[in-house]
């Protein structure tokens, strides 16, 4: 499991998990799970085109992530945001269908990008993943306050002259970058589970933004590390364990939240009755 051929896997998976946990906080707090689901699927055709052109798959993912951001942001000005997101997804998937029909040597890569193939990562893939992940986190860190304000209270943000539309564009850009680097690891179908799952659990455990981000990153790391270990031992897809662990952690978080809420209510009731509890 920790042999030399697995070192790159652990490094890339750690980078992806840390970025997904960080960006996932904003996905959850902005209720943008649909966008987090759409962009991975929308960038998937980019990998197909890159394969046809014989270039690095990551370039295709980034290019189509950019197209997804442009489509969602521009169409969002004309109507409802979820409709714009759906239309962007449909158009990108249509292109993906066309690209896939042009290639007959793509089945293995299709499977890997749908379900993830983190085992056997090459050394040349580490630097691009680290660079894209650092850029994504750096943008989010620089825009942390206005992005958080727009996510919690768009009206208050407008009063303080923070453009919600501009922050939405920056958020989609951050999400697109995080998606492009996460997709080869956990696959298009489960990228959003890595972003949404740990962040949703963190939000159930604390209301503090900084603590929630820290918890989200930690849970994301635990999820990915455990998923790789189980995948190595069982030869089952990493994405399966990522999704399953995310659901388990979220269930445990909801149970803890319920128990904590009930304890507080009992304490308040007891204090009202006796004034001493």
What do these coordinates show?
This protein is mainly alpha-helical and 277 residues long. Helices cover 83% and strands 0% of the residues. It has 12 helices and no strands. The protein has helices spanning 4-29, 33-53, 57-76, 81-101, 107-115, 126-142, 144-152, 154-159, 164-186, 191-205, 209-234, 238-274. Helix 1 crosses helix 10, helix 2 (33-53) packs across helix 9 and helix 11 (209-234) crosses helix 12. It is globular. The termini are far apart. The mean pLDDT is 80.
- What distance separates the N and C termini? 52 Å
Rounded average pLDDT: 80
Helix content bin: over 70%
The assigned structural class equals mainly alpha
SSE string, helices as H and strands as E: HHHHHHHHHHHH
Rough outline = globular
Radius of gyration: 20 Å
- List low-pLDDT spans: none
Counted beta strands? 0
């Amino acid at each position: 499991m920790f042999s030399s051929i697995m070192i790159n896997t652990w490094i890339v998976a750690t980078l992806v998990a840390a970025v997904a946990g960080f960006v996932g906080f904003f996905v959850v707090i902005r209720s943008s799970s649909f966008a987090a689901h759409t962009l991975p699927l929308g960038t998937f055709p980019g990998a197909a085109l890159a394969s046809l052109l014989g270039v690095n798959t990551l370039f295709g993912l980034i290019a189509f992530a950019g197209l997804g951001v442009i489509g969602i942001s521009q169409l969002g000005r004309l109507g409802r945001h979820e409709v714009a997101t759906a239309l962007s997804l449909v158009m990108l998937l249509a292109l993906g269908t066309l690209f896939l029909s042009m290639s007959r040597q793509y089945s293995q890569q299709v499977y890997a990008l749908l379900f993830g193939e983190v085992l056997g990562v090459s050394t040349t893939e580490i630097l691009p993943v680290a660079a894209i992940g650092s850029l994504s986190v750096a943008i989010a860190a620089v825009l942390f306050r206005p992005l958080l304000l727009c996510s919690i209270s768009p009206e208050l943000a407008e009063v303080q002259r923070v453009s919600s539309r501009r922050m939405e564009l920056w958020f989609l850009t951050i999400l697109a970058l995080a998606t492009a680097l996460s997709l080869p690891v956990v696959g298009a179908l489960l990228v959003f589970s890595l972003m949404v799952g740990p962040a949703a659990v963190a939000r159930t455990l604390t209301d503090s933004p900084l603590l929630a981000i820290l918890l989200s990153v930690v849970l994301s790391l635990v999820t990915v590390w455990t998923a790789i270990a189980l995948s190595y031992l069982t030869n089952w897809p990493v994405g399966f364990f990522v999704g399953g662990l995310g659901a388990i952690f979220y269930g445990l978080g909801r149970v803890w939240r319920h128990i904590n809420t009930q304890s507080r209510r009992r304490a308040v009731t007891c204090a009202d009755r006796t004034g001493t509890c």
